[in-house]
Inverse folding.
């Protein structure tokens, strides 16, 4: 519809109030059918098109948009119709002795309240759509990182970024709403600053743990699922990296909760990084006089026959020491999964004991030779 049509309609009606009421109805109807048309275009044209692309990011973005596009379109029409009606209530009409606003003064407040409600609805829709977009983009980034280095980043940094992003977006929405309604936020900001300072002083330890948690998530010395050695040679699997603390599952199936501030300051050994290939060590002593080559051959055969022994690096045997009662050997093998270490060590020791007995190789007791002098 162009300006000529509107002028024709105004001339035909010869009443500004009636013209604007009819125009409001037309705008509402057009905005409704426009939203339906956009919904049809999205489902029948855009969705089949993006489903054929190589990446699924566009599919997720379209799904995250949901019905927001149609709602925003209809909301824009309602907002425009309110603006048209706002001008109409101040116009002369041949059916009234004076403008509608003078007969019903409350209409001005009603229009203002309607505009405020529409603006709040607009901000809420945009806020929720922004939340969805942030989730989609961060999830996509998480998948990309996990695919690159095979680490569960989605369980650590990504949830924190989602929470922080939502807080920032919500704060931005509140500021926009306050600015729209001419609310002076300077005093609020000052009060917030003083309150934040008081909270920071009262919760230094908590804030320190939160900052340390963020450092862990960005620096990533370990990830969820990693096995680490920490605090006086304790070993466990990381099950959760939170804002305040890190949770570790030890070998007693207990959860150890360590504040992030302590984790950052301590020495951590990541057993599973850069890969999960882990060394398995078994030490054994044999009696003096035993054939060294025969011992090495038996130990290597036992290691190679173990089902969890890695094929990437061949097992090795080292003659490490002349002990007080024995010749000491160290069998070094590898397993592809760090979780197999204890079970593999157990099997190797059992097999070594069986094979040594079979080949009459003695594992000696500690011997002490006492010389008695004749007086």
């Amino acid at each position: 519809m162009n300006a000529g049509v509107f002028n024709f309609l105004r001339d035909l009606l010869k009443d500004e109030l009636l013209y604007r009421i009819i125009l409001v109805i037309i705008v509402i109807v057009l905005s409704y059918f426009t939203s339906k048309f956009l919904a049809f275009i999205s489902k029948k044209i855009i969705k089949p098109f993006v489903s054929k692309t190589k990446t699924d990011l566009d599919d997720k973005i379209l799904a995250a948009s949901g019905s927001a596009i149609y709602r925003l379109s209809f909301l824009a029409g309602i907002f425009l119709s309110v603006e048209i009606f706002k001008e109409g209530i101040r116009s002369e009409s041949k059916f009234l002795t004076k403008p509608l606003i003078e007969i019903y003064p409350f209409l001005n407040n009603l229009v203002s309240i309607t505009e405020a409600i529409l603006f709040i609805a607009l901000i809420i829709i945009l806020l929720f759509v922004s939340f969805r977009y942030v989730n989609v983009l961060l999830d996509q980034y998480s998948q990309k990182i996990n695919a690159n280095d095979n680490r569960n980043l989605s369980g650590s940094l990504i949830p924190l970024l989602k929470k922080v992003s939502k807080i920032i977006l919500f704060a931005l929405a509140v500021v926009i709403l306050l600015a729209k309604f001419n609310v002076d936020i300077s005093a609020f900001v000052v009060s917030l600053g003083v309150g934040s300072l008081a909270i920071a002083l009262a919760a230094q330890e908590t804030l320190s743990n939160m900052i340390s948690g963020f450092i862990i998530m960005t620096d990533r010395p370990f990830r969820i699922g990693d096995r680490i050695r920490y605090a006086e040679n304790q070993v466990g699997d990381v099950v959760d990296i939170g804002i305040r603390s890190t949770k570790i599952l030890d070998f007693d199936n207990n959860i150890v909760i360590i504040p992030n501030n302590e984790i950052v300051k301590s020495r951590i050994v990541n057993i599973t990084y850069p890969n999960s290939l882990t060394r398995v060590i078994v030490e054994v002593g044999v009696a003096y006089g035993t054939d060294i080559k025969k011992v090495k051959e038996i130990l290597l055969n036992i290691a190679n026959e173990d089902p969890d022994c890695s094929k990437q690096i061949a097992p090795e045997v080292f003659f490490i020491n002349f002990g007080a009662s024995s010749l000491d050997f160290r069998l070094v093998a590898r397993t592809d999964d760090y979780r197999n270490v204890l079970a593999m060590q157990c099997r190797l020791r059992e097999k070594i004991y069986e094979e040594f007995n079979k080949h009459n190789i003695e594992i000696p007791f500690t011997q002490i030779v006492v010389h008695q002098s004749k007086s």
User: Anything to note?
Assistant: Residues 111 and 351 are 88 Å apart (CA to CA).
